[in-house]
Amino acid sequence: MPAELVFVTGGARSGKSAFAEARAHALGGAGVTYLATAQAFDDEMRDRIGRHRADRPAAWDTLEEPLDVAGALRAARHPVVLLDCLSLWVSNLMLADHPDDAILRRVDDLLAENTRTLIVVTNEVGLGIVPDNALARRYRDVLGWANQRAARASTEAYLLASGLPLRLK
Amino acid sequence: MPAELVFVTGGARSGKSAFAEARAHALGGAGVTYLATAQAFDDEMRDRIGRHRADRPAAWDTLEEPLDVAGALRAARHPVVLLDCLSLWVSNLMLADHPDDAILRRVDDLLAENTRTLIVVTNEVGLGIVPDNALARRYRDVLGWANQRAARASTEAYLLASGLPLRLK
Amino acid sequence: MPAELVFVTGGARSGKSAFAEARAHALGGAGVTYLATAQAFDDEMRDRIGRHRADRPAAWDTLEEPLDVAGALRAARHPVVLLDCLSLWVSNLMLADHPDDAILRRVDDLLAENTRTLIVVTNEVGLGIVPDNALARRYRDVLGWANQRAARASTEAYLLASGLPLRLK
């Protein structure tokens, strides 16, 4: 039986993380590993990470891994894992000079290997004007493809807007 | 009993205002106060405001208030008020140097005080690439939080796309 | 009886074209004319066009027309036409110095004249921060209005996110 995969997408500040945390709590109670992909390069980012951490249940494990997310997933102590977020993982891999096909293969491998109940948070970034710079356009493409793969593999999927979920699947 | 709150969000040119006006007309007929937060700084903005006004029923009252929206709401003559829009109000407060928490407190206060049937129009702005400039990122955050508060307090909520509504709540 | 019109919108890399192609195949089988509006100005664009073409059934006709889309539609050999995409057509007309009202009239005329089963692919571009440059703001406006017209005339409509469809109509 394939593992349960909950896919949660939406824009910035759309309430994705809060929704995903509520779903993780419903599925795993206190037995949830939070797998963070964020890297704090500056104060703005450090603030965002700190704010998010303070909002999570104290009993949850936290793993921080910007690149080897599949390895961190295998190392997780709990049967329910909340990956927050796929979009930053893709961004981290791009910044570490991984080519597009290697990034998408990593996403495929993670989805294929996974045996846990996995909640995946990600971002929709393709609903604005075409960005001026080529790196942003490449990120839109690669993340869009990665999102499609995760959404296709999901057993339930949601689009968040203003904190409210639309059921995609 | 809490007042009725209709939340209407969507992108630019997604038909939010037309949908909100139709909803206001259905709820209040000719007895609607239109509460505009737009300020005409330039010709482009003046054109947009003029076009919108020409589309509204002539019987409706119009109040224009960029900052003290709660005060304007208390002064409205009709039991149905259409606030167009929350996103510009937040933008006006930011440009007038109000800090984030003060802006969100104003939104909370307006939602808590309101005794009318209120239709709130707002924008989703978080579904593109992360903006280059810090002010735009801050606006995305604050507006996202404001939208979540209004959507949570709403009794019905819609996301517009290409002029068509998706029911959020 | 008005012709069947399937409206497919979404962000970049949201799976719009694949969804529209599947819908075209279901409606027309091998008897589909693919009407492409893309113009290859540079290598990036040529790559995108080539990738898309390789994904389509070999039996389909392809017409390429950046500007006179109504003429190409009349010339199509099959009763089912997939227009990919409205958003690039609007962009091409703007770059060829057509004024806004002339562009929207062309869209209206195409919708009014059409007697085929038409699948229209387009982009939602209004869900990010207001763009800095005036041309991008104008494009958001004109495309938003064009999308509303096509969505209003449609007999079915979908918003794609991460490859999954939300039914708009």
UniProtKB/TrEMBL annotation, chains A, B, C:
Catalytic activity: adenosylcob(III)inamide + GTP = adenosylcob(III)inamide phosphate + GDP + H(+); adenosylcob(III)inamide phosphate + GTP + H(+) = adenosylcob(III)inamide-GDP + diphosphate; adenosylcob(III)inamide + ATP = adenosylcob(III)inamide phosphate + ADP + H(+)
Record's signal peptide: none
PANTHER family, per database record: BIFUNCTIONAL ADENOSYLCOBALAMIN BIOSYNTHESIS PROTEIN COBU, PTHR34848
Similarity comment text for this entry: Belongs to the CobU/CobP family.
Active site location: H52 (gmp-histidine intermediate)
Enzyme superclass (EC): transferase
Protein name (database record): Adenosylcobinamide kinase
Residues involved in GTP binding: 10-17, 36-38, 53-56, 64, 84
E.C. no: 2.7.1.156, 2.7.7.62
Keywords, in A-Z order: ATP-binding, Cobalamin biosynthesis, GTP-binding, Kinase, Nucleotide-binding, Nucleotidyltransferase, Transferase
Organismal lineage: Bacteria, Thermotogati, Deinococcota, Deinococci, Deinococcales
